[in-house]
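Dissemination and training. As part of the outreach component of the grant, students in the summer workshop were shown how a complex can be specified as a set of sequence lines and then modelled as a single object. The example used during the hands-on session is reproduced here so that future cohorts can follow it. Participants entered these lines:
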Amino acid sequence: MGLKVRKSRAPPIPGACPLTECLALLSGAWTPNLIWYLSGGPRRFGELRIDMPRISAKVLSARLRELEAKGVIERQLIASSPPSAEYALTEMGGQLLPALDAIARVGQKLKGVCSRPRRAVRSSESSSRN
Amino acid sequence: MGLKVRKSRAPPIPGACPLTECLALLSGAWTPNLIWYLSGGPRRFGELRIDMPRISAKVLSARLRELEAKGVIERQLIASSPPSAEYALTEMGGQLLPALDAIARVGQKLKGVCSRPRRAVRSSESSSRN
DNA sequence: CTGTATCCTGTAGGATACTG
DNA sequence: CAGTATCCTACAGGATACAG
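and obtained this result:
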């Protein structure tokens, strides 16, 4: 789809405009959405798969690794049974949100209405998961 | 390059988050930069090729057509010899700038410094081009 | 100069199957 | 549940050549 703000094979301009590098952080068709869904708080692998039904496990995994390597998100493995993993934006990742908000805002103005992800609290939030 | 916020084959989420549709406007590896360079005012085909040395004529042409079809930019053919064409952001296209600025701002904060495109006025600006 | 037409390649991402 | 490994395809984009 759209986001094709992805890691393009052909790097546009050497070191020209400031868009390039920042956009590189968002490369990958799913990356912006991924960050978007993490903006509401930590999220587990499986939950992200539900948030983005059409993403394949392979790609989700790859994007998460990339973003982790770039310092945009953090992974926390929870040793439990079944094992789970939580992903959350780092402080740096949070700095990307204003930009995504701006994009979303334009999207709203240009067409529809929508709000930041405020999904229900995880079902087992206050109960037990360990 | 980065944004690969491009036209992905696999549309992320059906109609979920507001990012998707707006990002679709920016699809294509060069699109964000293209809009960026047009933000400083009307620009000719050849000038854009200079702004983005590594883009191929084919792709530049394709992106321009797409953006024109989407109502983001306007094309003005100037019947002169040699013939020239000017591309400029439409009002709608201008609405995308805040978002791009936000992205650029984050890029700056995260790494370097850069400013909006303020290239020199076209050489023949005040001279003759009929 | 402003494009368009071909051809070709790299690679992002889906599907599926399997592991810890 | 949380991933990894393979395989495969679709398509974005570069190079080149040509056209108005």
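The longest strand of chain B covers residues 73-78. Students were then asked to discuss how this feature might be tested experimentally.
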